[in-house]
Design goal:
The chain is α+β, with helices and mostly antiparallel strands. Helix content is about 40%, strand content about 10%. The strands form three sheets. The protein has a five-stranded antiparallel sheet, with no helix packed on it. It has a two-stranded antiparallel sheet with strand order 1-4. α5 crosses α9. Bound molecules: fe (ii) ion. Fe (ii) ion binds next to loops.
Length: about 350
Amino acid sequence: MRFVHIDKLQSGLELARPVFAPDGRILLNSGVQMETTYIERLRHLGIPGVYVTDKDREGIQIPETISQRTRLDATARVKAVFDSVRVGKTFRLEDVSESVKAIIDEIVRNPNVLASLSDVRSYDGYTFSHSVNVCVVSVMLGLKKGYNEIQLYELGLGAILHDIGKTQIPEEILTKPARLTEAEMALMQQHTTFGWQILRENPNVPLSSAHVAYQHHERPNGHGYPRQLTSERILPYAKIVAVADAYDAMTSERAYQRGMLPHEALKLINRLRGVQFESDMVDLLDRCVALYPVGCMVRLNSRELGVVVDVNQSERTRPIVRVLYDRWGNRLPQFFELDLAKERYLTIVEVVE
Ligand SMILES: [Fe+2]
């Protein structure tokens, strides 16, 4: 299976994974053949693309960082919390805290998946699944940092609710397709302060989680907002969420913009280390992200073309590659697999898709 952006989707392609609405309903089930009317409907709903079956990737299991069920449940719960806060109601913390605990449980139980962040992307509406993704990535980084269960919970809760202040920002500013004016930008930046106020008022939210909403746009160089804090005054949880937020935003597929590949996003974040992002946290991200995630098509220095089928935990630049095309681009009658950790003369020179 492979991800196809909405702009490249054609009728006849077969869905490999169901397409879900943000509330968890199935819009289209796996096995369905795409038709022009479906594609138009998906586009209308702002869905950036879908997974389709692909003979080059037959039988390759793309590992899931957290289960589909936990992800969908969490997304629906975040949506419910945002919806009630938006209309001025108080929210029940249990609604999201259950999800945060489930996410932590799955990540702690399955730390090997840490190397593959390929599925941590949003394919259904942006805000809610982005919140869940930021929580997943933050918890992964926290686990690498050696946090205990309580710390992971405080971090995860702050991460999943980091943008709750956006409920107080008018919809037309949130979704404005053009550049924001200075006044609109100033209002938009207030989502941090609003988030802090909303979370602080709920006695069940740890203060350190509320601070994540307040500080996640602060930057080590003091050029962030809302208070221009410098590195030593920004809390570690907020520094982690800042990195996770940026990574997910960069790699997310949007209807109007292709997501970056993991190694491209990593390169960009590394370029901003110490300035926009705390070096220690960037190191954690480096250790969590698979540069060449399972399912991606790569070109080797031998000019052969193949699909990554497994990741080597100890050597992230040297995964196991199933070679499908020879150096002249001809499809091989029979594929073979190469472990780049053993075949030292081979390297990956390019990610093809
Ligand atoms: Fe934000």
